[in-house]
Design goal:
Blueprint lengths: L2 H11 L6 H5 L2 E10 L2 E9 L7 E8 L4 E10 L4 E7 L7 H11 L6
Antiparallel strand pairs: 1-2, 2-3, 3-4, 4-5
């Protein structure tokens, strides 16, 4: 993550009580590029080291706009319950953006 991306990312997660790996960076996958409504976005994701199914995060970032959106997943394996925390997304945001983020959490790295 470059300096600009890192700065925007830390602003995105500020104020949330996320585990240390989210703040410091966990196990990550290579970024891919997606186009949504004619705009190009970088799609990134990471997860808790040595336990990806338990906690993960997916991000959409536009370097041109300096805009970032994301979703954090915390999966309770004992209760079989996933809790999602949407970051910088409102209910009015396009469903496609949410779908791309959720699919990335689930391991889909294609566009």
């Amino acid at each position: 993550m470059n300096k600009q991306t890192s700065q925007v990312y830390h602003q995105l997660i500020a104020g949330h009580d996320f585990p240390a790996w989210v703040k410091q960076g966990g196990t990550s996958t290579p970024a891919s590029t997606v186009t949504l409504q004619g705009e190009t976005w970088q799609l990134l994701s990471g997860c808790k080291p040595h336990n990806c199914p338990a906690q993960s995060i997916a991000l959409l970032y536009s370097p041109e706009k300096g805009e970032i959106h994301g979703v954090y997943s915390d999966y309770d394996q004992k209760r079989d319950r996933q809790t999602l925390t949407w970051l910088n997304l409102t209910p009015a945001d396009e469903a496609k953006m949410r779908n791309v983020l959720f699919r990335r959490l689930e391991g889909d790295v294609a566009e």
